[in-house]
Amino acid sequence: MAISRLKAVYLLMHEFSLAQEMLSMLEQIALEHRLKKITKITLQLGILSNVVPEALEFAFASLAKDTICEGAELVWEKVPVLARCQSCGEEYAAASAPFACPRCQNAQARILDGTHVTVANLEGEG
Amino acid sequence: MFVEVNKNILENNEAIAQQNRQIFRHHRVKVINLLGSPGAGKTSFLEAILEEMSRKYRVGVIEGDLSTSLDAQRIARLGVPVVQINTQGGCHLDSRMIAEVLSRFDLASLDLLIIENVGNLVCPAAFDLGEDMKIVVLSVAEGGDKPAKYPRTFLEAEAVVINKIDLLPFTDVDLPSLEQELLTVNSRLQIFPVSCRQKEGLAPWHKWLEAWLGKSEGEVGHHAG
Predict the structure, then answer these.
(1) Does residue B124 contact residue B35 with C-beta atoms inside 8 Å?
(2) Which of A106, A115, A123 sits opposite B2 (nearest CB)?
(3) Containing H/E element for B51?
(4) CA distances in angstroms from A35 to A48, A126, B8, B98, listed in the order given
């Protein structure tokens, strides 16, 4: 289903600010490791990160022009939600909402992981 | 060359949010991050809170909007210290924007700071501002499917205010099913059906908020990220 124009603008705004944060972080890492170019970035996408990978890729590619990240390949790995049940203490992974506890069925999840986009690793040239 | 990184791309935002949180703790001011779609009634709800609470507590407000200071003007009329942040098209507030305006409040003299986020149920959920709790304002005019569509927002909230219940006869929303839907996502949610326009259903909310304000630091739940 096509997303509305307004929604598309919202999504892009969001991913642009995330891409900017990511780029600043990568430039800092490149400096620390004396890299002249970053060629490949492996990202872990939490399924509750509210991030659309395609939109982040587009934003990142645009912002990365004329930087050490220009043309870098982005590789995505999906991370499920990791939750702790506040009712029975069970820790469990869940791949989709509503994230109820598989042991006691209560919806009292304290979310431990799966809400972030993480740069796992990168490849570059010195 | 291969470099192991393992860093959250919002690491900076989270570090600044923690600094904000420490500043709030230091000044003993409790902080609410108020979320909701555009038009859900966040500002009307905020006005209702201020009318009740500003008699007993010292409350400050940060208004987040893409542009204009219309909401801040509404709040300033109530005699409450308010700072407007314009995100210039940005879909959410981030912790740096909050840090930048804190010096404009006399934090030591405040009991409660309410941050009204940009109208949006998606992006603001990803940005910790340093708040003690998130409250979501939902309106029956938006339809009953929001909890399932935006689970993260509701997973991280402590309470949901269902606004515009005076419009229920004109919508397809069934209030008990909406409440059930919310509890399916997060059974710890406190739910308050209200009509800000008709000033209906607000008393239980005010009571709950006051009980929360009376809690000591250690008892106040917050999401550190």
Answers:
(1) yes
(2) A123
(3) helix B42-53
(4) 32, 4, 20, 34
Q: Is the distance from CB of A99 to CB of A109 less than 8 angstroms? A: yes
Contact call for residues B60 and B109 (beta carbons, < 8 A): no
Q: Please, are residues A60 and A23 in contact by the beta-carbon 8 Å criterion?
A: yes
Q: Report pLDDT digits (tens) over A41-91.
A: 999 999 999 888 999 999 999 999 999 999 999 999 999 999 999 999 999
Interchain contact A39–B (C-beta under 8 A): no
Burial A14-42 (b: 16+ CB within 10 A, else e): bbbbbbebbbebbbebbeeeebebbeebb
Give SS3 for B102. Answer: helix
Sheet hosting strand A37-46, strand order edge to edge: A73-79, A37-46, A117-125, B2-8
β-bridge partners, B192: B161
- Which candidate from A11, A13, A121 shows the least CB-CB separation from B2? A121
CA-CA-CA-CA dihedral for A11, A17, A22, A28, to nearest 10:
170
- Residues from chain A that touch B91, judged by Cβ atoms under 8 A, are 10, 13-14, 17
The residues in A 46-105 lying below 8 A from B, measured between CB atoms, are 48-51, 86, 97-100
Does the CB of A124 have a partner CB in chain B at under 8 Å? Answer: yes
Question: Per the CB < 8 Å rule, is A115 touching B152?
Answer: yes
> What ipTM was assigned to the predicted interfaces of this complex?
0.84
